[in-house]
């Protein structure tokens, strides 16, 4: 199915853990973080971790890209459905085992607040993290 590899990519299923902190001097990090939408709590998928993994919230900011936004609607619906399923599954697929409950909850909240084309679909659903 075409949606599955996209979901794996969005959630960095094959991400390699960083073995050492990444430090830069160019100012790129500060500029990069400023771009992109923020949720009601001020969080963004563009926030970097750079200590144990690349991003603080392990969901790709490319979910906001023009290429993603122009995917055929049936494919996007399936991607959102699978993304929701992974983030709320009580059984953790080995590809997503490194996603903590806190990561999952944060990703749900950020995406809910910042992706307008899924707001109607996801807002009606209560996540497992919301029920805790």
Descriptive account of the structure:
This protein has 132 residues and is mainly α. The protein contains 6 helices and no strands. The protein has helices spanning 3-10, 28-34, 66-69, 73-88, 101-114, 119-123. The longest helix is centred in the middle third of the chain and has 16 residues, at 73-88. The N and C termini lie far apart (32 Å). The model has no long low-confidence stretch (mean pLDDT 88).
Annotation keywords:
6 helices, 132 residues
In brief:
Helix content is 41%, strand content 0%. The chain is an all-alpha fold.
Which regions contain 5 or more consecutive residues with pLDDT less than 50?
none
Quick one: overall form? globular
Overall pLDDT level? 88
Structural class: mainly alpha
Radius of gyration based on Cα positions: 15 Å
Q: H/E order of the elements?
A: HHHHHH
Helix content: 40-55%
Strand content: under 5%
SS element count, helices: 6
Distance between the termini: 32 Å
DSSP, total strands: 0
Largest sheet: none
SSE map:
Layout: H1 3-10, H2 28-34, H3 66-69, H4 73-88, H5 101-114, H6 119-123
């Amino acid at each position: 199915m075409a949606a599955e590899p996209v979901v794996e990519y969005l959630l960095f299923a094959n991400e390699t853990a960083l073995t050492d902190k990444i430090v830069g001097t160019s100012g790129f990090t500060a500029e990069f973080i400023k771009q992109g939408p923020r949720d009601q709590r001020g969080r963004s998928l563009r926030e970097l971790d750079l200590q144990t993994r690349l991003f603080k919230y392990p969901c790709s900011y490319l979910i906001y890209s023009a290429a993603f936004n122009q995917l055929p609607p049936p494919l996007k619906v399936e991607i959102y459905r699978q993304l929701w399923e992974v983030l709320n599954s009580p059984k953790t697929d080995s590809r997503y085992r490194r996603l903590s409950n806190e990561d999952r909850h944060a990703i749900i909240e950020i995406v809910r607040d910042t992706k307008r084309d899924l707001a109607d679909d996801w807002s009606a659903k209560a996540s497992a993290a919301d029920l805790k």
